[in-house]
Amino acid sequence: MNEKILEKIFEFLAYLSSSAQGLFGEPREYGPLRCVDAMRRFIDLIIELKIPLDKDVMNELKELRSWIDKDIHLLMYDPDKFKDFVNKLTRSLAEIIEKYLSLSEEKPR
């Protein structure tokens, strides 16, 4: 396996692990912040590793990434707006998933 790819994967996993460890001593509000940051980093990883995805899917992920960049710091200034942002982000991601995976249709087994 390409060492650069492996390095990026381990870097992401180390971020998740250290975030989990750090949350024991941080205020509970940091948990959602860390999760949103993990989404941002995962999208970056997909882009950087050139994961072959449909162009439309990639564009939607990039839009999510931009939105995260714009609003991730709301927690510091307005925790209620940050919570609203996370809720909207989650709904938006669910819509993207449904759009591309057709989860709303019952599939025969």
Could you characterize the architecture of this molecule?
This protein is mainly α and 109 residues long. It has one domain (3-101). The protein contains five helices and no strands. α1 packs antiparallel against α2, α2 runs antiparallel to α3 and α3 (55-71) runs antiparallel to α5. The longest helix is centred in the C-terminal third of the chain and has 23 residues, at 79-101. It is flat.
Estimated share of beta-strand residues: under 5%
Please give the count of helices.
5
Number of strands: 0
- Estimate percent helicity: over 70%
Kindly name the structural category: mainly alpha
Short structural summary:
The chain has 109 residues and is mostly helical.
Please write out the topology.
Elements: H1 3-22, H2 30-48, H3 55-71, H4 74-77, H5 79-101
Helix pairs in contact: 1-2, 2-3, 3-5
List keywords for this structure.
5 helices, mainly alpha, 109 residues
